Amino acid sequence: MSDPLAFSCPPSEPPTLIVHLSGQWTLYDSLPTIHDVERQLERMPSLQRVAFDAQHLAQWDSSLLAFLLKVQELCRTRELTVDLTGLPHGIQRLIALATAVPERSSPKRVQPRESWIAAIGTLVLSILDRAQHLLQFLGEVMFALGRFVRGQARFRRADLALLVQDCGAQALPIVTLISFLVGLILAFVGAVQLRQFGAQIYIANLVGLGMAREMGAMMTAVIMAGRTGSAFAAQLGSMHVNQEIDAFRTMGIAPMEFLVLPRILALTLMMPLLCLYADLVGILGGAFVGVTMLDLGGLQYFQQTRQALTLTDFFGGLFKSLVFGVVVALIGCLQGLRCGNSSAAVGMAATSAVVLSIVVIVICDALLTVLYDILGI
Amino acid sequence: MPHSASRSNHAVPQIVVDHLTLAYGETVIQQDLSFTVSRGDIFIIMGESGCGKSTLLRHMVGLDRPQQGDVFYEGKSFWTVDAATQARMMRRLGVLFQSGGLWSSLTLGENVALPLQLYTRLPEHDICELVALKLALVGLSGFEEYYPYELSGGMQKRAGLARAMALDPDILFFDEPSAGLDPMSSRLLDDLIVELRDSLGATVVVVTHELESILAIGTNSVFLDADTQTMIASGPPRVLLQECPHPKVQQFLRRRAPV
User: Fold this and answer.
1) Is A175 in the same domain as A259?
2) Which helix (H) or strand (E) holds A50?
3) Given this model, what pLDDT does residue A377 score?
4) pLDDT reading at B149 higher than 90
5) Less crowded by CB within 10 Å, the N or C end of chain B?
6) Are B80 and B86 contacting, i.e. CB atoms less than 8 angstroms apart?
7) ipTM of this predicted complex?
8) Is residue A256 part of a domain?
9) Which residue of chain B comes nearest to A100, CA vs CA?
10) Are residue A85 and residue A181 in the same domain, yes or no?
11) Could you tell me if A316 and A355 lie in one domain?
């Protein structure tokens, strides 16, 4: 196969470089680069005109077009005239089409280089902006709650019932599994240490206190953040993308009352119940290890758990789960309502709802634990 | 349709858009828009893609706050009143969104019924009858139990229209009603718009760039220009076609490529 690109310079006036194009010029062939032309032009500084010969050109596609546009650009910078008449008619028309509308400068977004001070400023402003949004959101939720308490909130009771079912009963299987395993793990971890002293029976204290005060609430919250918080964000986000939220607003229906309020109520109501259930299942998990592996009697384990736990321990955990429920529901709804206008934004809203929820849950947990310690609970 | 006192007051134009400037942050979309819509008009907001037609609609129905200017309905300001009054005024407007905007978790019947359940004290069987009536008006009788995703695009648009009419609004807004529809469905929707205007006495505002619709049903219009960021023509579309000297309007209405 001959070289796809060749040059000749027959004597003519004005001095002309003829570019011979031949063979295949498609996106799937390896093609000569513009540098060959550039080198050729540099070798002959007296040139004034560039023409083309495409007699032996077989197949071509947009790769040839791109090449020719680069040649044209090169010639413009060197102030050479370009004669396209030697090219197939189709290419000439495509080149005319491609160069018909001059490149618009404004819509190409060039990010101006910012100094680091400006970057910090922008960051601070965006944080302030977010904080303001958050406060506004919380305020609106408070107003909606106020209207709910006064019986003026507009939402469908059926929606609330469905949400309660979704946040409550339908979460039971996963909560059961995770809590049982967490109880089991706690028991295992303790067993290794306590067995050395023959104090296996204190596994019951460890598991009972661990579940009731801490792990029951925490694990339920993490499960609900991943299961329900993200679902809230995705639901509200896709409603936003589909203009369903706009439809509510034009009907004078506040999305805050109609969509956010029932979600917050449902999750806040169900979370303590799930937590209590998780506590009990976790204790069962611990008992399973105690009875099957540590030769403790079932009754003995039960008695020991009863002695170790007080109602205060349970209520401490339940209060935590109430707080976590509010946190997960608020963050899920907030991320959903703040969602952008694309399918990617819905995914991001769901993801950030989970991540942010878990972070805030852990922070709240730490704060509450310190607070309980100070209060002597 | 309710026959309120203001309805018979023909002297006041139904909608007055007064020096409206639309902007998102610092990006100005359109500025200094002023026009009036009379009762019974099928008013067209037209212009090239991306010029801010839908944005103008969002500002007229209360979804976005204008940077400057105001909109008056029946002579009453829309953007200087408190939220409760504004919400009450918004209930007099029906909006059909570009994508239909149907609530996807509700059936068509529930979609149409919801505004009635929230804002009226009608007993359930009356609401059911009204829902059946609205769906029949848009040619969707018997589709009460269907979910939006079970319908074709044209049917979703019509269902969206049934919901927009749920509270018998005085003004119906359409955002690109023919977008994504085949010529027959698009024509059907045009006929429906005219029919509803004539029979219900509603005023209609349509955002569109569908030339055939514009010339077929539009009784008045405004032309938005993306380059100058303001309106460059207003008047009945057929008159603009004959008389407007502005080259862009002529190119648009005669379907010519810009030179």
Assistant:
1) yes
2) strand A49-60
3) 81
4) yes
5) C
6) no
7) 0.85
8) yes
9) B259
10) no
11) yes
Question: Which residues 154-183 of chain A have a CB within 8 Å of chain B?
Answer: 154, 156
Domain with A27 in it: 5-100
Do the domain assignments include residue B149? yes
Sign of CA dihedral A243, A247, A249, A253: negative
Q: Which of B168, B201, B223 delimits the end of a domain?
A: B168
Q: Kindly report the nearest CA distance between residue B87 and chain A, in angstroms.
A: 5
Question: For residue A263, how far is the Cα from the chain centroid?
Answer: 21
Contact call for A239 and B87, based on CB within 8 A: no
pLDDT one-digit tens code per residue, A56-92: 888 888 888 888 888 888 888 888 888 888 888 888 8
Chain B residues in contact with chain A using a Cβ-Cβ cutoff of 8 Å: 58, 61-63, 87-88, 90-91, 93, 95, 97-104, 114-115, 117-119, 163, 167
Say if residue A96 is in the same domain as residue A140.
Answer: no
**How many distinct structural domains can be found in chain A?**
2
Q: What percent of chain A has pLDDT over 90?
A: 58
Higher pLDDT, A283 or A294: A283
Q: In what order do the strands lie in the sheet with B230-234?
A: B93-96, B171-175, B203-207, B42-47, B220-225, B230-234
| Structural domain span for residue B193 | 11-92+171-259
Residue A63 in contact with residue A26, Cβ under 8 Å? yes
Q: Among B168, B203, B225, where does a domain finish?
A: B168
Residue A115 belongs to some domain of the structure: no
Closest CA to B135 of B111, B104, B101, B115: B111
Q: Is residue B3 part of a domain?
A: no
Each as own residue / partner, the long-range contacts of residues A28-31 (CB below 8 Å, 24 or more positions apart, any chain) are: A29/A4, A29/A63, A31/A4, A31/A63, A31/A67
- Strand ranges inside chain B, DSSP E: 15-24, 27-37, 42-47, 68-73, 76-77, 93-96, 171-175, 203-207, 220-225, 230-234
- Tell whether B82 and B137 lie within a shared domain: no
pLDDT band at B5 (very low <50, low <70, confident <90, very high): very low
Q: Any CB–CB contact under 8 A between A252 and chain B?
A: yes
Residue with the two structure tokens 């029979």? B199
Indicate whether B159 and B208 sit together in one domain.
no
For the cut 50, the answer to whether the pLDDT of residue B7 exceeds it is: no
Token pair belonging to A365: 């947990």
Q: Which residues of B touch A251 (CB under 8 A)?
A: 90-91, 114-115, 118, 167
Interatomic CA distance for residues B116 and B119, integer angstroms: 5
CB within 8 A of A66, min separation 6: which ones? none
Contact criterion met (CB < 8 Å) for B88 and A154: no
Q: Is A220 a domain residue?
A: yes
Decide if B185 is inside a domain. yes
Please report the beta strands in B162-219, taking only residues with DSSP state E, as ranges in sequence order. Answer: 171-175, 203-207
Q: Are residues B115 and B242 in the same domain?
A: no
Tell me, yes or no, whether A96 and A138 share the same domain. Answer: no
**Mean pLDDT of all residues in chain A?**
90
Nearest-by-CA chain A residue for B83? A252
Residue A330's SS3 state is: helix
Domain count, chain B: 2
pLDDT in tens, B169-210: 999 999 998 888 888 888 888 998 998 888 888 899 999 988
User: How would residue A144 be classed by pLDDT, with cut points 50, 70 and 90?
Assistant: very high
Spatial separation of the C-alpha atoms in residues A183 and B216, rounded to whole Å: 72
Judged by CB atoms closer than 8 Å, whether chains meet at B90 and A250 is answered as yes
With respect to residue B184, please indicate whether it lies within any of the assigned structural domains: yes
